[in-house]
Each structure stands twice: as structure tokens, then as C-alpha cells.
Amino acid sequence: MVRPRTTSDEEILAAAARAVGQVGAARLTLAAVAREAGLAPATLVQRFGSKRGLLLALAKHGSEGGASPFEAARAAHRSPLAALHAALAALAAPVESPERMANNLSFLQLDLTDPEFREHAAADARRTNRRIADLLTDAVAAGELETRVNVPRLARAVQVAYNGALILWSLTGDTPLKQALRADVDEVLDPHRSASS
């Protein structure tokens, strides 16, 4: 008789994401993920086959789950620009320190050097860009941004500001990350705000 799974793949992938944040992708071990998930390493091998299989599953899960912070922010805020700030802050929430940022950036090395990982990272980047553009389109309709704004170009600029803010904050840490992120994104948005907003 097959025993039912008591820990879902989603819970395991969340544990894997936490473990990557603690030690980085290169130093990650199945034993570390198993400890974080409260499982035996053999369970991870049964489900994912290998460390690479687990990391690919994590990359795929991340690229498919990119909408949830945006959906949650939309539900919580009437203002599309407030929702945008909230969604970006939620995306950045796992970056609690420069060390965590470095550990998460170790995943980027896989994204840049391995075609299978790159495919998931590119899908995630495109999906995030669309979510940003959707909120900017809503902000135009709500009168928060000027009607003549070029939404695709502004969405790209916001995404670049978001990623750049994470890197600069990791190097300087002058202000809390959430505050730095908001200031950098506002620097991009402010010239496009409507006079009535």
C-alpha cells in the first residue's frame, strides 16, 4: 500500500527556496533542503531525482508563480501604483540582507549558464514585465499616470529600476530595502504622473 504524501511538492520547494537563501545554489545540498522541509534526503531523490532536478523544479515553480504577489497587491490596494509598489516589495521580501542577496544571485549563475534554467528565468522576467505593464495600464485608466505614457517602455524602466535597486542596496545598504526600492521606482514613475494624482 502506498503511503500518502504528507509534505507537498510546493512545501518542499518553499523549503528549497529558503535553503538557497541561506547557502546559495552552489553550496546547496539535498540534506540541507531535507532538514529545512523536515524530510529524509531519500524523499527528495524519489520526488526530484537529484539536486539539479530539485533546482529545476524550483526554477519552474518560480517562473509559474510570479503572478501571485501582483494578484495579492491588486486585491489589497485600490490604487494601481500602490499595488505596484506592494507587489515589488513582496517580490523583494526574501532579500533580508546582502548575504541573502548573494545567495539568491547564485541562482542567477545557473540561469545565465544553463539553457534549461535560462528558459525559466526568461519566462519569469517576461511574466513580471507583463504584470508591471498591466498595473501601469490600470494606473493610466485611473488617472494616476498621464494618458500619453508609453506603457511598455515604462514597464521595462520600472523592472530595471527594481533589479538595480536590489543590487545597489546589497552593496550600500544605506536605507531599508523597501524604502530604497520605493524611492528608485518612484524616480522612474514621477515624471509620468498625471497632474491630478
From TrEMBL:
DNA-binding region of this protein: 29-48
UniProtKB keywords: DNA-binding, Repressor, Transcription, Transcription regulation
Record bears the keyword RNA-binding: no
HTH tetR-type domain: residues covered: 6-66
Pfam family, one: TetR_N
Name under which the protein is recorded: TetR/AcrR family transcriptional regulator
Native organism: Actinocorallia aurantiaca
